[in-house]
Amino acid sequence: MDWINITNAAINGIVLGLLLALPALAVTLVFGIARFPHAAVGDYMTFGAYTAILVQSFMSASLVAAALIASAATAFLSLFFYAWVFRSLSQRSPVSSLIASIGVAFAVRSVITFFAGQSQYVIEAPLVRAWNFSGVRILPTDLYVAATAVLALAAVFFMLHFTAFGRRMRAVADNPELAAASGIRVREVMITLSVIVGAFCGLGGMLMGFKAVVLPELGWELILPIFASVILGGIGSPVGAVCGMILFGISQEIASLYVGASYKLVLAFVVLLLVLLIRPQGMFGKIIAVR
Amino acid sequence: MEFYLIAISISVLIYMLMASGLSLQYGFTGLVNFGYVGFFAIGAYTSGLLSLQGVPLPVSFLAAMLLAGALAYPLGIITLRLGGDYLAIITLGFSETVRILLMKEDWLTRGVHGVPGLPRVFDDWAGVSSGDLTLLLLLLVVNIAVFALIAYLVRSPFGRIIASIRDNEVAVRALGKNPAAFKTRSLMLGSALAGLAGAFQAHYVTFIAPEQFVPLITFYVWIAIIVGGPNRILGIVVGTIILLTFLEGSRFMRDFVGGVSEVQLASVRFFIIGMALICTILYRPNGLFPDKFSKGK
C-alpha cells in the first residue's frame, strides 16, 4: 500500500473523526454529568439527518439552514426525552437510564422508518471537484464539514472552560451533591446538557448524511465506534473524546485499506477490548468506580 | 391449529430459556448484557455446523453451551473488575461483531445465505409429525430444570452473594469476596443458557442466517424479563408469554388495519418495543411481579 493511499485515508479519517467528535463529546458529557452511557445518541443523529432531508425537500432551504434546523429539531427531541424520561430516572441507578435510552433509541428510529421507510436518501449538495496535490486528494466539502465540527467543538470548549455556566457544569460533573449544596441549579445544567446533546447529535448526523448516505441505521451503527473512542479518550473527558475520536477515525480508515470496510465495527470492538484491558482509564480519564 | 399451538409453544419455551439466562444475569446479579443475542447466535451456529459434520446432537448441544459460556469469560474478566456500565457496551459490541463475522466469514458460515438443512431433534425416531411434540416436551423439561437450577442457586451461598453484589457491591468487597469472580460466573452461566436456546432454535427452524441474530432479539428478551419482573421465576414465565403474544398478535394486525406496508408494520412493532422499555423502566421498575424485598431501583 503506497503512501498516497494512506495519506488519503488519514485525511478522510481526520474529517470523519472531527465529525463524529460531536456526538462523542455529547456521549462523554452525559457520561460525566448524568452518569450513564446514552445509547440514543446514534438515533438522535439519524433524526438530525432525516430532518435535514425533510427540510431540504419541503423548503428547498440552503445547506446551512438545513443544518441549523436539523440541530434545533434534534435539540428539542433530546429535551423532550429529558423532560419525560431521564429527569425522573436521574435519582435511580444509572442502569435504569441506560435501558431507557435503548428504548428511546428504538422509539426514535421506528418513527423515522414508519414515515420514511427503509430506502436511502441523499442530502442535496452542489458537486465539487477534489483538489489534487499529486495524488493526495482533498474534497472542499470535507473541509466545510471539518470546519463546522471544529467551530461547534470550540464553542462548547469555550463554554465549558471560560464561562460561569461551564464552571457550574463541571462542578455538577465533579460532585452533584456538593454542587447542589453550593447553590448550583442542577436542573438547569441538565437542561443545557440535553440541548447540547441534541444539537450536537443533530448536526453530527446531518454532516454524516452529507458525507455519506442517509439510512435508518446511520446512527445506530456509529454508536459502537463512538463509545469505543469515548472510552479510549477517557470517560467524562471532553478533550479525550475529541482526541480519541480523531485517533479512531484515522485508524479505522487506514485499517479498512487492508481488511475491507465491513470490519469497521469489529475494529471498534477490538479497540474497546484492548483499552479496557490495558488502560481502562483511557488517555485522559479516571477509572469510573462502582457507584 | 394444533400445529400452530405446538409451534408457538416451542417459540415461547425457547424465549423462556433465554429469558432465564438473562434474568440470572440482570435480575439476580445486576449485570447489563446488551449483546445477549450474540451468545444465542454462537450456540445456534456451533450446534448447527457441528451437526452437519456428523456430530451427534447431544454432543453439539453441549458444545454450543460450552462455547457460548466460554466466550463470556474474557468479556466478564475484562469488564467486570472495572464496575460501571462497561459490560453493556462491550456485550453490545460483542453481538454486533459476532453478527458481522457470521456475515463475512463465509468459508465457515456461508455468510448472508445462511446454513439450511440442519437435522431436527427427534425426527430420527419420532417421525416428523410427533417430532415437534417430543421437542416441546423436551423443552418443557429443560425449562423446568433451569427454573429448578435458578431456584436452587438463589438459595445457595452463591445466590446470596450475587444478590448482595446486585444490591451493594462495596459491602461484598468489604467481606473479602471478589465480586468480579462471582459476576463472571453468573455471566457465563447465563450465556451458556443462551447458547443452549440457540441450539434448540437452530435445530427447530433447521435454518440459520445472520439476519436472525440482530440486536432487536436481545431487547425482546429484555422486554420479557423486565415486564414480568426481572428476579422472579413467575415474572420470567409471564413476561415471555406477554412478549410472544405481542409478537404473534402483531403479525395478524395487518389483517385488521388496512393500508399498512410491511416496513410500517415492522416500525410499529419496533416502536412498541421501545415504548415498552421506556414505560416499564419509568412506571413499573420492578415489573408486574416485584420481588417482595426489592425497592425501586
Measured by DSSP, the beta-strand proportion of chain B falls in under 5%
- What is the CA-atom radius of gyration of chain B, in angstroms? 19 Å
Runs of chain B in which pLDDT lies below 50 for 5 or more consecutive residues are none
At CATH level 3, the topology of chain A is ABC transporter involved in vitamin B12 uptake, BtuC
CA radius of gyration of chain A is 19 Å
Strand order of the largest sheet of chain A: 1-2
Structural class of chain A: mainly alpha
Distance between the termini of chain A: 47 Å
Question: How much of the sequence of chain A is in beta strands?
Answer: under 5%
Number of strands of chain A: 2
Shape of chain B: globular
Measured as a percent range, the helix fraction of chain B is over 70%
Which two chains touch over the largest interface?
A-B, 51 and 48 residues
Which stretches of chain A are low in confidence, meaning pLDDT under 50 for 5 or more residues running? none
**Secondary structure: number of strands of chain B:** 0
CATH architecture of chain A: Orthogonal Bundle
Keywords (chain B): Cell membrane, Membrane, Transmembrane, Transmembrane helix
InterPro entries (chain B): ABC_transp_permease (IPR001851), LivM-like (IPR043428)
Protein name (chain B): Branched-chain amino acid ABC transporter permease
GO molecular function (chain B): branched-chain amino acid transmembrane transporter activity
Topology:
The complex is a heterodimer of chains A (291) and B (297).
Chain A: H1 3-33, H2 41-59, H3 63-89, H4 94-116, E1 131-133, E2 136-138, H5 140-162, H6 164-174, H7 176-181, H8 186-211, H9 223-233, H10 238-259, H11 264-278
Antiparallel strand pairs in A: 1-2
Chain B: H1 2-28, H2 36-52, H3 57-80, H4 86-104, H5 106-109, H6 123-155, H7 157-167, H8 169-174, H9 179-205, H10 215-228, H11 233-256, H12 262-283
Helix pairs in contact in B: 1-6, 1-9, 1-10, 1-11, 2-3, 2-4, 2-9, 3-4, 3-9, 6-7, 7-9, 10-11, 10-12
